[in-house]
Amino acid sequence: MAGVRAEQRERTRAVLLEVSRRLFASRGYAAVGLAELVQAAGVTKGALYHHFEGGKVDLFRAVLTGVHEKVGAVVAAAAEAETDPWDQLLAGCRAFLVAATDPAVRRIMLVDGPAVLGWSEWRAMDEAQSASHLAEALAMLVAAGVIAAQPVAPLARLLSGAMNEAALWLAETDDPNALDDVTSALFRMLGALR
């Protein structure tokens, strides 16, 4: 009996996350009410608060964590497909730009994330999911002498900020060449570090 209950709880949590992700992505956090979330998920408010004690904000935090993890996995897979550390950096950066142009990712991760959770919490989540990997890649390139010796933390933040801004712009533009143009500009910028 306990196994069945645990399975039901997990199913309820998964439904809440999926429905919320879809609604937050399509309309944004502010436009989605708690009553709408529970109705769309087919659960009670009590069930939502059981899984997400802080209500809508905690639910959003969990959705954002899932989006960060998904983007991180895409970036890691692209980087790991390359053998050369420099090519891994380039592939990971490009994969981030492509992933972040998905309208759902853009709205949840880059627009609503900082607005809902505040810059400090959003930054900590970003650091845990992707910025730390970027810093590790840069540190490895510095250690190998591919990039000139320099403090990695500010460099990682500059590149992360540039890519986040580029992803926001890419998601808004109608220019069919925008991704190629941004990627070329980013690669030229990175090339200057070699």
Automatic annotation (TrEMBL):
Domain HTH tetR-type span(s) in chain numbering: 10-70
One Pfam family from the record: TetR_C_41
Molecular function GO labels: DNA binding
PROSITE patterns named among the record's database cross-references: HTH_TETR_2
DNA-binding span(s): 33-52
Protein keywords: DNA-binding, Transcription, Transcription regulation
Protein's recorded name: TetR/AcrR family transcriptional regulator
